[in-house]
């Protein structure tokens, strides 16, 4: 590895500074700060209603923050025009809590959907190859021609994950990836997240309450409390933390 | 109307206008969602075909049964096909078709988009670099705008066929005489404004359905509410548009 590569890996690829968001009189985010480094899994945890989902939606521009900056490779996404934002979004993959797969399209069409719309000019054969590769990664190649109504909750989430990785994004955002799943399926998703990180060398922000997910997937953890980053660190350091508020998350 | 309700009305009107204002710029800007547009036209046209055919056929029969006794009393029963034709082509056919279409399609579009909003499918589109307005709204509004005029032509034909059958329940008029009376009583000033207004009706139904679904509340109750409100608002707007078109037609001397 060259010296320049080492320096680049120490630069955050995503940098969030002084992020604020309120809905009416309710403050959701207040002076939130965090950095995401290359090939890093950053877990954001916090109580329900702490603003984790709002944070992740601010990052991809689905919600406009009131103030603060979200810089990807130094470019502030909060100041971008809609067209610039659409281009910047191609660096992101987003696994929604519900999977958010398109009900009216088959599994194959769900995965083809982003490929046909980002101007990659792929042939039908190349599209099929990418679809099959992504489905193979999540172990659902046999379900390629099923409709979403024929899939279980875990399968829907895995199809959502396959759609998320099909454009090989630089940053993957996971909104509560194991919520609503049984323990076994949850563990499958956790191991998939790890495999995808290894294969695609993507950085990830994972919003979760799941201790198993935090323990196995986190390189670093940010605890969100009252709209701000209350404490940051790796799993062992937070596990050993003496603050009662922090301790209650690791019981 | 209370002050609050008045402000809500102004807000919804302004918001709907802003939403509709994006339609033409998005329609002409590449990339074109041709496949989805054709799929929606097929679904929207086929979905409403049966209901519109049945209701307009029945209303044609009923209209004839209601008018015929008075025509007999006044001794002008021979004018019955012409009277029915004017009533059906100018007003009953287009407006009834649009109202049935609104009940069927505005609610269906609105519920579909609202469900997509609740399950974050619209957000997923946004994040994956697809313009959801173009993919979801432009295709559906265009399909409604093009399909309603075709359905309206079919509906007028079926309503007149219903009238023909109703005439023959209580007398006899030959097929040839009925239709020659119908066509000889028609002129372009009857057909053109009636046909053109169905494009506006289609646009209104599609746009209101999309608007109510696109901005639905993100819960299951919101899905039902948005479908219901889409039908109510599009039905009201059909009458408002009808009033404007008939007013303009009148001012231009077509009546």
Keywords for this entry:
heterodimer; A: 251 residues; alpha/beta; Rossmann fold; 4-stranded antiparallel beta sheet; 10 strands; 38% helix; 24% strand; globular; B: 255 residues; mainly alpha; 9 helices; 85% helix
Structural overview:
The complex is a heterodimer of chains A (251) and B (255). With 251 residues, chain A is an alpha/beta fold. Chain A has a domain at 40-53 and 94-250: P-loop containing nucleotide triphosphate hydrolases (Rossmann fold). Chain A has ten helices and ten strands. In chain A, strand 1 (14-23) and strand 2 form a beta hairpin. Chain A starts with a helix and ends with a helix. Chain B is an all-alpha fold and 255 residues long. Chain B has one domain. Chain B contains nine helices and no strands. The mean pLDDT of chain B is 91. Chain A binds chain B through residues 57, 60, 62, 86, 89-90, 92, 94, 96-98, 100-103, 113-114, 117-118, 163, 167, and chain B through 31, 115-116, 119-121, 123-124, 126-131.
Q: What's the short version?
A:
The complex is a heterodimer of chains A (251) and B (255). By secondary structure, chain A is of the alpha/beta class. Chain A has a domain at 40-53 and 94-250: P-loop containing nucleotide triphosphate hydrolases (Rossmann fold, 3-Layer(aba) Sandwich), CATH 3.40.50.300.
């Amino acid at each position: 590895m060259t010296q320049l590569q080492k320096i680049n890996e120490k630069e955050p690829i995503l940098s969030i500074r002084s992020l604020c968001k309120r809905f009416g009189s309710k403050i959701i985010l207040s002076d939130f700060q965090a950095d995401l480094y290359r090939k890093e899994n950053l877990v954001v945890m916090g109580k329900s209603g702490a603003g984790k989902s709002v944070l992740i939606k601010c990052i991809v521009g689905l919600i406009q923050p009131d103030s603060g900056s979200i810089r990807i490779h130094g470019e502030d996404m909060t100041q971008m025009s809609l067209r610039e934002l659409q281009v910047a979004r191609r660096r992101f993959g987003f696994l929604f809590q519900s999977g958010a797969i398109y009900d009216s399209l088959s599994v194959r069409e769900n995965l083809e959907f982003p490929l046909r719309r980002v101007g990659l000019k792929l042939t039908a054969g190349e599209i099929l190859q990418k679809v099959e590769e992504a489905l193979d990664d999540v172990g659902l190649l046999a379900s390629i021609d099923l409709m979403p109504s024929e899939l279980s909750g875990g399968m829907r989430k895995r199809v959502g994950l396959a759609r998320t990785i099909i454009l090989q994004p630089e940053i993957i955002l996971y909104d509560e990836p194991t919520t609503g799943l049984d323990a076994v399926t949850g563990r499958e998703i956790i191991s998939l997240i790890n495999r995808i990180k290894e294969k695609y060398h993507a950085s990830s922000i994972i919003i979760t309450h799941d201790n198993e997910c935090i323990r196995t997937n986190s390189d670093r953890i940010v605890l969100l409390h009252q709209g701000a980053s209350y404490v940051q660190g790796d799993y062992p350091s937070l596990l050993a933390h003496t603050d009662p508020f922090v301790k209650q998350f690791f019981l | 109307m209370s002050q609050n309700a008045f402000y809500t009305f102004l807000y919804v009107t302004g918001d709907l206008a802003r939403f509709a204002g994006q339609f033409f710029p998005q329609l002409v800007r590449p990339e074109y969602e041709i496949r989805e547009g054709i799929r929606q036209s097929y679904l929207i046209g086929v979905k409403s075909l049966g209901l519109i055919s049945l209701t307009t056929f029945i209303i044609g029969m009923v209209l004839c049964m209601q008018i015929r006794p008075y025509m007999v009393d006044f001794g002008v029963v021979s004018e019955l096909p012409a009277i029915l034709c004017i009533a059906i082509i100018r007003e009953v056919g287009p407006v009834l078709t649009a109202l049935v279409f609104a009940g069927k399609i505005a609610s269906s579009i609105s519920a579909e988009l609202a469900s997509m909003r609740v399950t974050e499918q619209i957000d997923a589109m946004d994040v994956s670099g697809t313009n959801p307005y173009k993919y979801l709204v432009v295709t559906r509004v265009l399909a409604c705008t093009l399909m309603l005029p075709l359905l309206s032509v079919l509906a007028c034909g079926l309503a007149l066929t219903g009238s023909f059958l109703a005439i023959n329940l209580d007398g006899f008029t030959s097929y040839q005489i009925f239709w020659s009376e119908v066509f000889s009583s028609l002129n372009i000033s009857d057909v053109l404004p009636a046909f053109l207004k169905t494009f506006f009706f289609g646009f209104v139904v599609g746009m209101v359905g999309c608007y109510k679904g696109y901005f639905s509340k993100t819960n299951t109750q919101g899905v039902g509410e948005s479908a219901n409100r889409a039908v109510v608002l599009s039905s009201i707007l059909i009458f408002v548009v009808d009033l404007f078109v008939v007013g303009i037609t009148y001012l231009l001397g077509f009546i």
